[in-house]
Amino acid sequence: MIERFGQGLRYHDVVSWNGLLFLSGLTDTDAGNTMRQQAEGVLKKADAMLQAHGSDRDHILRAEVFVRDQADVATFNEVWDQWINRDTAPARYLAVSKLGREPILVEVVLTAAVR
């Protein structure tokens, strides 16, 4: 059965199916205007959303990361490396990309297994 949570105008925040969680893009401009602040904020949001739906960072299967500026990739990676458990790190894709609104420096999309 497909379950959907957090309905927005065009999407749901989380879709659950067959023990898998599909999280929509996570951003956090409220955390601040530096890559470090936004990356930490996004990953904190990810922890909360995963926990709310029966998962955690050790059960992430795939991460798609979109960074506005190539110059910020190293900073994002530093934050990511402190957050993720190297032994359970997911498959990951990172692209430098134009993002939806100017203040957004990073967006993360996750697919995870339910514990």
Structure summarized in a few sentences:
The chain has 2 helices and 6 strands; from the N terminus they run βββαβαββ. Helix 1 (35-52) runs parallel beside helix 2. The protein has 115 residues and is of the alpha+beta class.
Describe this protein's structure:
With 115 residues, the protein is α+β, with helices and mostly antiparallel strands. It has two helices and six strands; from the N terminus they run βββαβαββ. It has a six-stranded mixed sheet, covered by helices on one side. Helix 2 links the parallel strand 4 and strand 5 (91-96). Helix 1 (35-52) runs parallel beside helix 2. It is globular, with a radius of gyration of 14 Å. The mean pLDDT is 97.
